[in-house]
Amino acid sequence: MIALRGRRIVLAVSGSIAAYKAVQIASDLFKAGALVDTILTAGALQFIQPLSFRAITHRLVASDLWDPHHPSGVLHVDLADFAEALLIAPATAHTLARLALGLADDLLGCVALSTHAPLVLAPAMESRMWLHPATQQHLAALRERGATIVEPGTGHLASGASGIGRMAEPATILGHLAAVLGRGGDLAGRHVVVTAGGTREPIDPVRYISNRSSGKQGYAIAEAARDRGARVTLITSAGLPPPPAVTAIPVESAEEMLAAVATACREADVLVMAAAVADYRVAAPAPEKIKKQDERLTLDLVKNPDILASVRGDFVRVGFAAETENLLANAAEKLRAKGLDLIVANDVSASDAGFAVDTNRVVFLSPDGVESLPLLSKREVADRILDRVVERLRARHA
Ligand code: CTP
Fold first, then answer.
1. In this predicted model, what pLDDT tens digit does every residue of 17-67 receive, in sequence order?
2. CA gap 48, 53 in Å, rounded
């Protein structure tokens, strides 16, 4: 779950067939605990009814700048003051043009001009409208003024054609929104490098050795750091789609991961090694697919570099210890041997914690002592880890 609890969002919907997806966005925002006021433009009203939003958000849904029933009489100023973020999804070519020019001919235009809140725009339109130099110039102007543009994707369009212009998926839009809202967070200005997934060590061009790590805990840490204002580099060998507003660097093997981590850590404040790095790799992967011939096949394995132990520097270093026995003793030894600020130990033999599930039960070991945490979602574990990281960063700079 992303960090939107209690945040005040003005969701503006303009006239595109993608307006139906805005109902999903409103629902996701509501479920995440956000307070959502909605603006429907005249175009949006051609596609969708105010009641759809009112029933979901239980809050104001407005279209009319001149609404005689609004108590204060300055609806656009009230909405502008309320907003911590103004999210426009879908944003049509016409809406982008109006925003770029600063037109104030309807409620949305007036709110956009009146608010200090950051603007998050999720455009949706036919490819030719998107690619038109006028639209691109308006986008450039809006970007230059600090707006976040959640790029449309390529696929089926309302015309039946296929091309660029489909509005991004609600989850992607919410990820960008959370990143924007996190800008003032306790990791603002920090670069956090996170690794995730089990590395894949090639045997031949089609086979590899790996492990059961899903990458979920690492992804949750990357998202949580993003939502607390950090610039995040996620170095991942997991097959999951990258979180929005995070720089993802896909890697396969431990050696590739080491190279990517070493580069990213040249200017890092924090390294969280959540990846399950294979301890061994095949000494000489076969250049061609190995054919089944003999009754036995022996693979010669050599030790991989220890990434966490070898990448050192003036940044906070967090490791994981996945154990099936002697959890505390093994983790304490890793904390010491790798010179870490924190080690997150978990018993991966438990069915509700560790690999592939959405929950985790972990123990924190640091030079200050041991803390056992209850069963938590991986996102909650991520935030607890980052609480410790923030403490360490503060202590270092005190
Ligand atoms: N790690 C690493 N590079 C490796 C192996 C592990 O950076 N080659 C990191 C992991 O990402 C994790 C921590 O070190 O954060 C502990 O990993 P683990 O595999 O549990 O520890 P090992 O030291 O490899 O010990 P063992 O496998 O013997 O339990």
1. 999 999 999 999 999 999 999 999 999 999 999 999 999 999 999 999 988
2. 9
> Probe ligand 1: pick from 236, 258, 273, max atoms within 8 Å of CB?
273
User: Which pLDDT value is given to residue 354?
Assistant: 65
Reduce the DSSP state of residue 348 to 3 states and report it. coil
What's the CA gap between 335 and 343, in Å, rounded?
Answer: 6
Give catalytic residues, as residue numbers.
Answer: 211
Average pLDDT, the chain: 95
Of 35, 40, 152, 33, the closest CA to residue 88 belongs to: 40
Confidence grade of residue 163 (pLDDT, cut at 50, 70, 90)? very high
Q: What φ, ψ does residue 110 adopt, rounded to 5°?
A: -70, -40
Best mutation site among 209, 270, 279 for ligand 1 pocket (most ligand atoms within 8 Å of CB): 279
DSSP 123-151: E---HHHHHSHHHHHHHHHHHHTT-EE--
From first CA to last CA, the distance across the chain in angstroms is: 32
* Inter-residue contact 234 to 272 (CB < 8 Å): no
CA 395 to centroid of ligand 1, rounded, Å:
26
On the CB side of 133, how many CA atoms lie within 13 Å of its CA?
0
Tell me: pLDDT of 350 over 80: no
- pLDDT tier for residue 397 given thresholds of 50, 70 and 90: confident
Q: How far is the CA of 201 from the centre of ligand 1 (A)?
A: 15
